Amino acid sequence: MTDELKPHRYHPSYMHMGDCSVCGNLADDPIHAFPAPSPSNMTRLSEAKIAELRADVHGALQDSAYLAGAKAGWNAAQAADPNAAYAKLMASHDGYLKPLIEARRIVVREGGKS
Ligand SMILES: [Zn+2]
Asked: Is 26 left (phi over 0), alpha (psi -120 to 50) or beta?
């Protein structure tokens, strides 16, 4: 498998303000071998609709993560040694709060500046 992207059809990502969801480039980037939809046939999304879609996607991802965790917990409980399985499960995500802690540190440090 190569890291180099092949020409492809532009596929707008609503989560990324219309940047291509495949390559992240704008619609008129030469990598898009097929013409982008013209403004006449393209659905223009309002900022409110984009925010609504983002919130829906965010909620769905949280629900998905919750259900995956519930399933992993259920599986751990069925193991021969549930405590060891649970400890292994928790260890597999050790440090998961690091990005949140780092973001909070930056916000607290930069928060007073404007
Ligand atoms: Zn692309």
From this structure: beta
Q: Which two tokens stand for residue 2?
A: 């190569």
CA dist list (Å): 29 to 16, 38, 59, 96: 16, 15, 32, 36
For residue 26, the CA-to-ligand 1 centroid distance in Å is 7
Ligand 1 center from residue 109 Cα (angstroms): 37
Domain limits of the chain? 1-44, 46-114
pLDDT tens figures, 31-55: 887 665 666 545 678 888 888 999 9
- Residue range 93-108, pLDDT digits in tens: 899 899 999 999 998 8
Cα 99 to averaged position of ligand 1 atoms, centre (Å): 28
Cβ count within 10 A of residue 10: 22
User: 6 alpha carbon to ligand 1 midpoint, in Å?
Assistant: 9
- The CA 5 to ligand 1 mean position distance, Å, reads 8
